[in-house]
Known about the structure:
Blueprint: E1 3-7, H1 9-18, H2 25-34, E2 39-43, H3 53-62, E3 67-71, H4 75-84, E4 88-91, H5 111-122, E5 128-132, H6 136-144, E6 149-153, H7 155-159, H8 163-182, E7 186-190, H9 198-202, E8 207-212, H10 214-223, H11 225-236
Parallel strand pairs: 1-2, 1-8, 2-3, 3-4, 4-5, 5-6, 6-7, 7-8
Amino acid sequence: MPTLGVNIDHIATIRQARRTVEPDPIAAAVLAELAGADGITAHLREDRRHIQDRDVRLLRQTVRTHFNLEMAATDEMLAIALDVKPDYVTLVPEKREEVTTEGGLDIVGQLARIGEIVDKLQNTGIPVSLFIDAEPAQIEASAKMQAKFIELHTGKYAEAQDETSKNQELNFLAQGCEQAIKAGLRVNAGHGLTYWNVYPVAALPGMEELNIGHTIISRAALVGMERAVREMKQAMMG
């Protein structure tokens, strides 16, 4: 079974709705780890809509599993990552107008730029994961720039409206996973996964970690963080 990285962005979303100090995403990360989370993920967006710089620094000091910093491939974010030194960085696409990340990075179209950032991070000992769609050309480009990981975008699978479409998207992910592993990449996945659709992705051969946020935070609002995390780990086991 893959490990579970809990994304705590939306604890910060609730806090920022009132521009106050609670709920604190640092406390949420502690509770998630106590419940069995294998890692903590946070996305520092350029517009700071939820996670703040202060959160990133405190998470680096308090997370006891591993801390995955999601960020755009910009000079500002690169400087923050090199200073904070998370356990690994996931490079993600980012548009200011989007509600959430809408798709994978275009590695093929940005080889030079993303390759430069991957090199700067990995040369200082920070492994890089690239958030991409499971497209053969994107996987090949990710391997070419020697990223340690890819994170397969599972949004289309999660949004599939019928079993035929869902199975097609799952097969697409399975093929991407197989190609990536053969190319020497380690494979994570995430986006849109819920308690009801997570198991087939968790069961893909070679899948190492699932990064899941919204559905866990939604359930945590009703039943508490520790129970929400434990129930997700159970759901991943089928």
